[in-house]
Write a structure and sequence with these properties.
Layout (H helix, E strand, L loop, with lengths): L4 E7 L11 H6 L6 E7 L17 H13 L9 E7 L15 E5 L12 H13 L3 E4 L2 H11 L5 E3 L9 H6 L8 E4 L5 H11 L4 E2 L9 H9 L5 H17 L4
Parallel strand pairs: 1-2, 2-3, 3-4, 4-5, 5-6, 6-7, 7-8
Bound molecules: zinc ion (ZN).
Zinc ion binds next to strand 1.
Length: 253
Amino acid sequence: MASMIIDAHAHCGRLDRFPPQDLPDYRSCLREGRIGGFTAISPVMEIYDRHDPDFRDSPQWQKQRAESNAYLLGLGSPDFIVYPFFFIWNDFAVEQIRPGHKGIKWHRHADEPVYNYDDPRCAAAIEEIRRRNMPVLLEEEFANTLFFINELAPGVLVIIPHLGYLNGGYESLRRRGIFEMPNIYADTALAPDADIRDYISRHGHDRIMFGSDFPFGDPESELEKVLRLDLNDEQLEAVLGGNLVKLLARSNP
Ligand SMILES: [Zn+2]
């Protein structure tokens, strides 16, 4: 068992209560004190209206987004580590990134409002993210994932959530050589056992991290899933927290 288990993918906020996903809600579903911290990501519904394809940004949404991102900064405590990720949207408000933010969340599904990739502020945001060496937890549809990694932000640290399940699928990304790239990491949240085993057999255990996608995944059962893979101690240490801690130590110098 790893010395410190950290969940590399959990949503956390107090505005979106459907389902409840504040820090106490997360901690109340933990047993045995095994998980000692998480990567905190604002709920999508605190950032933009995912159900409105014609969604237009507004000062009210910008204010809510800023509050949601700032909320995560004050959550850590001596008995529970919190690594806040800054959820970026179409105002590309990188000036709101604080030293406490350890990564970036970039999130969109196919039927949701689009990122303005052509906006000059987008390119400027990528350069700021690169300068800060922050990993981007990138959930986008397949074509945009490839575009982001190969053209928009080559070399930028990227974490593919769910081993690619919502980025076009594990196999599609694997066949395009995405997981071979040294700057591309992945998390296990809601990924099938077979994909995790296949990933580790091909790419090793240094760039894959345990995650739950709380509140959509249950942290304890997602942890059990990884423990059932029969990984050795060194692999477990890496996957359950070591890889994440090492990656985030390089962030926001
Ligand atoms: Zn998620």
